[in-house]
Amino acid sequence: MSLLSLSHLTVRRGCCPVVDDVTLTVSGGEFVGLIGPNGAGKTTLLRAAMGLLPHDGQSSLAALPARLRARAAAFLPQSREIAWPVSVEALVELGRVPHPGAGAEADRQAVDRALARMGLQGYRGRIATALSGGEQARVLIARTLAQETPLLLADEPVAGLDPESQIRAMQVFAALAAEGRAVVASIHDLGLAARHCTRLVMLARGRLVADGAPAVVLTPDNLAEVFGVRAYFAQTPDGPVFQPLGVIR
Ligand SMILES: Nc1ncnc2c1ncn2[C@@H]1O[C@H](COP(=O)(O)OP(=O)(O)OP(=O)(O)O)[C@@H](O)[C@H]1O
Questions:
Q1: Does any ligand 1 atom lie closer than 6 A to the CB of residue 8?
Q2: Rounded distance from Cα 117 to ligand 1 centre (Å)
Q3: Do the beta carbons of residue 40 and residue 204 sit within 8 Å?
Q4: DSSP class of residue 129?
Q5: 13 Cα to the center of ligand 1, angstroms
Q6: Rounded CA gap, 248 and 227, in Å?
Q7: b/e per residue, 118-149, with b = 16+ CB within 10 A?
Q8: Does the beta carbon of 191 sit less than 6 angstroms from any atom of ligand 1?
């Protein structure tokens, strides 16, 4: 089932398109890694898809009334700012705002599930602003999980996490996809993307230049042309292994 449909999505900044005529569909079961160099348009694409930026073309999410959109998709922005010194539990509970009629017990269970998925049960009573940067990032992921939407859009969700937390977070996203939901996440770590995503969408200067399974997208030609790097990429008994090796321009 399609959970997100973008049709000729275009976002202009000044005269120039920074997202340029992007068409794609995301279905339940997919964990899509949105990849591309700095400035490629990943954040702009995610924000326009959520209806947070003026755009041309269509996004099925942006077309929804705000109340329905908040039940269709959760959004994790790139900015990790936590404004108020509230408890972790209270912050994660904010993910339940789009579900006013769910009831206290359903809300509590959703918060418990989100905290458990992110390994944060022991942090429930901690003040969120007094956590480390990586801990705060995990709490903010938990808040989006508590929203329990069919689709999660996340802007660099694993940036700044330690290796264990990165792998655990990627496994959580892959598990959501395996449950029939969908995740679209911008990711700079191509090794993590190659190992955990079911599909990669590669952007360059706002345009979609490759879309498919990691092995189809992370080709030597695409890596050279889009990222200016060469890399080692192999299927191993332990799964796909990707390591950038050097700069070639
Ligand atoms: N508010 C703005 N005004 C003008 N240009 C902007 C604005 N925000 C972003 N841009 C430009 O749009 C382009 C795409 O930016 P975007 O943040 O979407 O890239 P990105 O792929 O997410 O990059 P990064 O990996 O560095 O986070 C960049 O060239 C950027 O300079």
A1: no
A2: 31
A3: yes
A4: G
A5: 9
A6: 9
A7: bebeebeeeebeebeebbbbbbbbbbbbbbbb
A8: no
Q: Is the ipTM of this complex over 0.85?
A: yes
Are residues 35 and 203 in contact, defined by beta-carbon separation less than 8 angstroms? yes
CA 138 – CA 115 distance, rounded (Å): 9
Look at residues 215, 219, 236, 237 and name the one whose alpha carbon lies nearest to residue 227.
219
Residue nearest to atom 3 of ligand 1 (CA): 13
Q: Are 58 and 226 in contact (CB under 8 A)?
A: no
Question: Residue whose CA is closest, atom 28 of ligand 1?
Answer: 39
* Contacts (Cβ under 8 Å, ≥6 apart) of 12: 18, 56
pTM attached to this predicted model: 0.96
Instruction: State how far the Cα of 158 lies from the Cα of 186, in Å rounded to an integer.
Output: 9
| pLDDT averaged per 10 residues, the chain (length 249) | 96 94 98 98 98 97 95 95 94 94 93 97 97 96 98 97 97 98 98 97 98 96 97 92 93
- State which amino acid sits at residue 179: E
Residue 27 φ then ψ, to 5°: -115, 160
Q: What is the DSSP letter of 219?
A: -
2-79+150-247 CATH: 3.40.50.300
